[in-house]
Design a protein that fits this description.
With about 425 residues, chain A is an alpha/beta fold. Chain A contains 14 helices and 15 strands. Helices cover about 40% and strands about 20% of the residues of chain A.
């Protein structure tokens, strides 16, 4: 289906090269690459009871690779920190990676290896909802294993033993849309979207919020993920006198869409583009002028000025010098970090018991005091997290894009399940 | 590619005449027995390694698809570049029946899948084979390829069947209250079904019906002059192959717990062609070996980064080499052409 990976500009070869380049660093750090399936990162020290086995299933190749690689690096970073501080209850974490390759068909096979071959205690990963839906069955139902999904998503995932550590539509939209309508005077919204489950359900939620605050949705349309041509959409935006584009188009259709929208002069004429998965990683995938004035709402931005987050970023930069896979929110990296730390907290509570029931019971109310953008806590019985949310706008200064945080909302409720 | 093999068949015919293969050991039978015994023994060896049992189950399921292609191309000269279409549609049907009707009993869903494959293949045959003009192999190849591609694109845009996401969390295959999860029982089930399909296909191609097909392969016009309605024979084989592909697709769906648009597209259709041509078209056992060869190698090589990147290219080159230098496939190295084509009824002068 993804016959045109090459066009996305972030094709598999780049991701792979980065992975290979990263391998040198891994070897230097005392980790070793596995030989029989995916990658294995063994801790430097052992414990009589053996390590806690953590599986990471993420997109190392394919169009989603930029996010997937960031997730993988953050997972290594977080696990190294935990192991460096003595592990979880004295036991180190051993990390296993399988590439989900941005393709659910490949992913179900690869993820199964984490379960059947590696016999991991927990799996973290997946970026897109398509991927989550494809791999949750092999992990949770057939594999009888705990699963943590780290990405912001459309909500309504209430599967037992599946915990979500990314923001939900309520967390992303409840603050952002009223801000755009009341403070920015937006009335007419357009919803161009990629045709899969995340945009559909997010749009459904966002539409309700828009209409509740007196806004109007001019159109809501879905395109194949790899559509390269958007002139019809842009015509509708113009003809419908849209003043705010709420976009959920994703790669590989994303770059052409943003380019064509910008070239149509929408932003120059005062239009606002908002896209709630836009983070610092995405800044590198568009020319700066296309990004200027874009609104996003996430659980963390690098502009968030909080000592712990800054310390995390410094540590990450030291661990992966010059990496182009940034530790940001939209790529699920913050959810990954949060997921690993919440799992750590849960296992600490069970006293080292790794059984799925035990850990899930503890994870149900797990809390972490610190994290990127602040602490987080699972809402008991809901399998989703409360966390801080930030509304930010992209500003370009001297050709360099960055986000300015406009608002902070503390411990926003996920309103799920 | 589609031209290399008829040429191969022609040269095969000439070597058959030239060959002095009098009363050799039936190598083909030996290969078949060896394959059967290895497949039966596999779960005993692999029992502890669930992931390898899963891999082998997958190999068996895909080799069923390859066998269905072999019936088309190896025995009837139908270049079906859309075998995955029947595979995928049947896979979707059983997934939907599981989701919407909460039904996945083995006695109902597998026959249903075969029926879906059969009917769909018949419809295609009606259009591609039974038209007024005699279809050329290119016409059939492009027709099936287009069908496969169109189906993939249609399904990727259709919300009810999950669009681009495909269908996941598919209900497990059941026999009464027993549920088949990945593992040895599922493997044995698939092995049993593959054996049944294989024997059925073997009987078909070695029967009087198969003799007609052999004649069609050699000289279609001549058979037509004899009064055979050649296209009817072809359509029948195509429909049977469709049913087999459907069965394989349903098993895939249940086994993987996932079916997506990619499972009915040209990519998988091409894989069926590759499995067959590599193993040896027109042998039935060749496609099984070809599938095992490619899938096991892919699984093993997937871990070696340097090779993974160029693996599709390697696969392409291997196939090119096989088609160019060894048109009868890997099995052709072992098995004489005469034996490959087989004998029907009484032995001739020889």
């Amino acid at each position: 289906m993804r016959s045109d990976n090459g066009r996305s500009g972030t094709g598999p070869s780049l991701g792979r090269r980065r992975l290979l380049a990263g391998t040198g660093a891994l070897a230097a750090a005392g980790w070793i690459g596995g030989t029989a399936g995916g990658w294995v990162l063994r801790p430097r020290w052992a414990h009589a009871a053996g390590p806690i086995k953590m599986g990471i299933a993420t997109d190392i190749t394919g169009p989603i690779a930029p996010s997937g690689n960031a997730d993988w690096q953050v997972a290594q970073f977080a696990v190294e920190q935990i192991n460096g501080a003595g592990g979880v209850g004295g036991r180190p974490i051993e990390l296993f990676l399988e590439d989900t390759a941005s393709d659910p068909k490949t992913a179900v096979g690869n993820v199964r290896r984490l379960i059947q071959q590696r016999k991991v205690d927990v799996v973290l990963g997946a970026i897109t909802s398509a991927m989550r839906q494809a791999i949750k069955d092999p992990i949770v139902n057939r594999g009888r294993t705990l699963y943590i999904y780290p990405q912001l998503y459309e909500g309504q995932e209430c599967t037992k033993f599946l915990f979500c550590t990314g923001p939900t539509p309520a967390q992303q939209v409840d603050e952002l849309i009223p801000y755009l309508i009341k403070e920015k005077g937006r009335k007419r919204f357009a919803m161009p979207s990629a045709n899969y489950v995340w945009p559909q359900l997010l749009n459904r939620y966002a539409r309700r919020v828009i209409e509740a605050h007196g806004g109007e949705v001019v159109f809501e349309e879905y395109y194949p993920l790899d559509q390269p041509e958007y002139s019809a959409t842009i015509g509708k935006i113009r003809d419908g006198r849209v003043d705010c584009v709420f976009s959920t188009v994703i790669a590989p259709g994303l770059q052409p869409f943003m380019k064509q929208l910008y070239e149509s002069g929408f932003q120059r004429e005062g239009g606002i583009v908002t896209c709630v998965y836009y983070d610092e990683n995405l800044l590198n995938y568009h020319p700066p002028q296309e990004m200027d004035g874009l609104y996003s709402c996430l659980d963390y931005f690098q502009a968030v000025d909080d000592p712990f987050s800054r310390q995390l970023q410094e540590g990450y930069a030291k661990r992966f010098p010059g990496t182009r896979y940034l530790f940001t929110a939209g790529s699920a990296s913050t959810g990954m970090y949060r997921g690993i730390k919440l799992y750590e907290a849960a296992v600490q509570e069970t006293g080292g018991k790794l059984g799925r029931e035990d850990v899930a019971a503890a994870l149900d109310h797990a809390k972490i005091a610190q994290g990127p953008g602040g602490g987080a806590e699972m809402v008991p019985g809901k399998m989703h997290c409360r966390m801080n949310m930030y509304v930010a706008v992209c500003k370009v200064e001297a050709g360099k894009p960055r986000y300015d945080v406009i608002r902070r909302h503390d411990m926003v409720d996920p309103k799920e399940c | 590619m589609s031209q290399a093999t008829p040429a191969g068949a022609a040269s095969a015919a000439s070597t058959a005449r030239a060959g002095t293969a009098g009363r050799r050991l039936p190598t083909l039978l030996l290969v078949e027995l060896f394959t059967a015994v290895s497949l039966l023994a596999a779960p005993l060896v692999l029992a502890e390694r669930t992931e390898l049992v899963t891999l082998m189950t997958n190999v068996l399921i895909l080799s069923m698809l390859a066998v269905s292609f072999d019936l088309c191309w190896g025995y009837s000269g139908i270049m079906s570049f859309g075998q995955a279409l029947f595979f995928g549609v049947a896979g979707y049907v059983v997934a939907l029946v599981g989701r919407d009707l909460d039904f996945s009993q083995i006695w109902g869903s597998l026959p249903l899948a075969m029926l879906v494959g059969l009917v769909l293949a018949l419809l295609f045959a009606l259009f591609l084979l039974l038209g007024r003009r005699k279809p050329t192999p290119i016409f059939v190849a492009l027709g099936t390829l287009t069908g496969s591609y169109a189906a993939e694109r249609l399904v990727s845009g259709w919300q009810y069947v999950g669009a681009g996401n495909g269908l996941s969390s598919i209900k497990l295959l059941q026999a009464g209250s027993y549920e088949f999860v990945e593992g040895v029982p599922f493997y044995l089930l698939v092995l049993g079904l593959l054996a049944a399909v294989y024997l059925g296909a073997r009987l078909l191609v070695r029967s009087q019906f198969g003799l007609v097909l052999a004649g069609v392969r050699q000289n279609e016009d001549r058979l037509a002059f004899f009064g055979y309605r050649v296209q009817i024979f072809k359509a029948a084989v195509f429909a049977v192959a469709g049913a087999i592909a459907g069965l394989s697709g349903a098993l895939y769906s249940y086994h993987q717990g996932f079916i997506g648009p990619g499972n009915m597209g040209p990519a998988l259709s091409t894989m069926a062609v590759i499995y067959t041509l590599l193993g040896g078209a027109g042998t039935l056992v060749g496609p099984v070996l070809g599938t095992a060869f490619i899938e096991v190698l892919s699984y093993w090589l997937a871990d070696i980064e340097a090779i993974k990147a160029v693996w599709p290219i390697v696969l392409g080159l291997v196939l090119l080499a096989v088609v160019t230098f060894q048109p009868s496939g890997l099995l052709g190295i072992l098995v004489s052409t005469r034996e490959r084509i087989g004998t029907y009824g009484r032995r001739g002068r020889g």
